[in-house]
Specification:
Helix content: under 10%
Radius of gyration: 19 Å
CATH architecture: 6 Propeller
Largest sheet: 4 strands, mixed
Order of helices and strands: HEEEEEEEEEEEEEEEEEEEEEEEEEEEE
Distance between the termini: 27 Å
Shape: globular
Number of strands: 28
Strand order of the largest sheet: 1-2-28-27
Structural class: mainly beta
CATH topology: Neuraminidase
CATH class: Mainly Beta
Length: about 350
């Protein structure tokens, strides 16, 4: 038996269909902690994971049975004693380019503030290594997210008292200066942002407000000409006098978006039309619970089924819902590494989660 066959066999043994209908779990390669995963137009799975504080990338062309040799995201020139980089988000761009945003612990090492910021790197199509890290804004900030489309548009979002965005029209080679979306937006400073391009080319940005200590989730939709609309998407109230430090997620679907977020420790999700309006039945409470700054995921298959997954105290949980918001099957649960979460819609419309 060849080494590749042995690896495939062991990974298949580590995979299982557990709990909710149409969900398969796969062990993250090399004992890594899963962070983000995306499915390319060619059916290849792109996975980011952390191993010993080293962000790594692998690719699978056979549905998660085998993976490529890992590539490190941080180039040697960017490494310094005690400096650690962590992945915040990933997006697939034009011709299959892989774009990633990272942060570091420069604040903890008390390095000059121009060494803080949002860092960006790309694995070009047919590239053998990620490009050297680029510091996009050179300032204290957090809550990083990224979106990209097949036309070469790339959007970076972050929090710095306000909600900021920088745009690229050339596949991430150059970016516009970071600009505040609207000074009236008042985001929770230690939560995050989540962003995605819709099928109509609009950019959806999800964030949590803190005005009057009401910690509601809002979605901003921005057209290519810069016009914006904003609406509140969460309906369960949450009044708290401190930032809850939560993460959330938005992803495009065939006709709009799906999004998931925590409120009072519970996981909620909703589906949206292309114009950002919440679709019936509105906000749906899942059986999931969240931990501080832990991953939440929602992805929708072509048939309208939506997977909602969460990480709570190093335990991966999930539930599938149909196009009308009704739950399918029982929730699933498995131990996982780290606080991240990674999953995709498989080529056959089922769901795959990494543990």
């Amino acid at each position: 038996m060849t080494r590749l066959t042995v690896v495939s066999f062991l990974l298949v043994l580590a995979s299982s269909a557990c709990g909710a209908e149409g969900v398969r779990t796969v062990a993250t390669p090399n004992g890594g902690a899963p962070q983000h995963a995306l499915m390319g137009a060619d059916g290849a799975i792109h996975l980011l994971y952390d191993k010993d504080n080293e962000p790594c990338y692998v690719k699978s062309s056979d549905g998660g049975a085998t993976f490529s040799a890992p590539l490190h995201l941080v180039d040697e020139a960017s490494k310094k004693p005690g400096l650690e980089f962590d992945v915040w988000d990933m997006a697939l761009g034009k011709d299959g380019a892989i774009h990633v945003v990272l942060g570091n612990n420069a604040w903890k090492l008390k390095l000059p503030k121009d060494q803080w910021g949002l860092f960006f790197t790309t694995l070009e199509p047919k590239g053998a290594a990620f490009t050297p890290l680029r510091n996009i804004n050179h300032e204290p900030c957090e809550g990083f997210s990224i979106a990209a489309d097949a036309k070469g548009n790339v959007a970076l979002c972050w929090l710095k008292k306000g909600l900021y965005c920088a745009l690229s029209r050339d596949g991430g080679r150059t970016f516009s200066p970071g600009a505040e979306l609207n000074p009236s937006y008042n985001p929770c400073p230690c939560c995050t942002t989540a962003t995605a391009y819709g099928s109509d080319g609009k950019l959806a940005v999800l964030y949590r407000e803190q005005t009057a200590d009401e910690r509601d989730i809002y979605m901003v939709l921005m057209s290519s000409d810069g016009r914006q609309t904003r609406q509140q998407v969460s309906t369960t109230p949450w009044t708290v006098a401190a930032c809850p430090m939560t993460y959330f997620n938005v992803n495009p679907s065939k006709d709009g978006y799906s999004a998931a977020w925590p409120t009072k420790g519970d996981i909620f999700f909703a589906r949206f039309a292309a114009d950002g309006k919440v679709l019936p039945p509105g906000e749906i409470k899942t059986s999931g619970r969240s931990s501080m700054r832990s991953g939440v995921l929602t992805v929708t298959s072509p048939n309208g089924n939506t997977l909602v997954a969460w990480n709570s105290n190093f335990k991966l949980g999930w539930q599938v819902y149909d196009a009308k918001g009704a739950s399918l099957g029982a929730p699933g649960s498995l131990e996982t590494r780290g606080k991240g979460i990674a999953g995709v819609v498989a080529k056959d419309g089922s769901f795959l989660l990494f543990q």
